[in-house]
Amino acid sequence: MASELNLPKHIGIICDGNRRFARTIDQEVAKGHEYGADKIEDVLDWCMELGVKTLTLWLFSTENFGRAAEELDVLFRIAEKTAYKFADDKRTHESRIKLNIVGDVEKFPEYVKKALDYAVEKTKTYGNFCLNVAVGYGGKHEIVSATKKIAEMVKAGLLSPNDITPERLEDQMFSSAVPNVDLVIRTSGEQRTSGFLMWKSDYAEYYFCEKLWPQFEKEDLIRAIVDYSERKRRFGK
Questions:
Q1: How far from 172 is each of 46, 143, 148, CA to CA, in Å?
Q2: CATH classification of 2-227, choosing from 3.40.50.80, 3.30.70.360, 3.40.50.10490, 3.40.1180.10?
Q3: Is 64 an annotated catalytic residue?
Q4: How far is CA 182 from CA 135, 195, 234, in A?
Q5: Number of other residues whose CB lies within 10 A of the CB of residue 178
Q6: pTM of the full predicted structure?
Q7: Is 16 one of the annotated active-site residues of the chain?
Q8: At residue 207, what are phi and psi to the nearest 5 degrees?
Q9: In this predicted structure, what is the pLDDT of residue 3?
Q10: From the candidates 42, 64, 104, 180, which is the catalytic residue?
């Protein structure tokens, strides 16, 4: 089936709905986040099976730092566990999956940063498939951060204002190594982008799925790809 479709090379997913899912099964919020983490492996497998080459998952936004300390501790522990599991899974190495972290992780606990660094280091030479994980990420924060770096370069005399180009600004972004997104999927029924990869998704197609992230299934991914395949992308022309 995949051979008959115009496959997106890069799919980005706004993984929304863990807490609401926990409520639907009458469980604590932590359980919803655990189910959400388990879904990552499934979606990764489906994308590789279908022939998609790059997947970006937005798992933790800059706004998420405002959540209760108890919930943040749960999220950080899950992130640590998931990173080590991915890095040490033989399937990661058999499939030669490269992990990139997209976002500002400075506010994360040291044990989380250590786990993320470990996973990135273990997969840095791979290239069959690219998994980008957006954590500590916000679209506005990314652009402001890149702008500040450019301003510092100008202040230091390393760059002239006349030499500032979109490409130079992009080089300073958290997502600088990420290719443009072809298809953005948002789960949970919410129909907004929330600033997801603003610089990289200007001509992306969007698909909004009613299911919560832990409920997302292969058939939902295929529906999104079929919908994408039927659209005519003009890129402003």
A1: 32, 9, 9
A2: 3.40.1180.10
A3: yes
A4: 20, 16, 12
A5: 21
A6: 0.95
A7: yes
A8: -135, 125
A9: 56
A10: 64
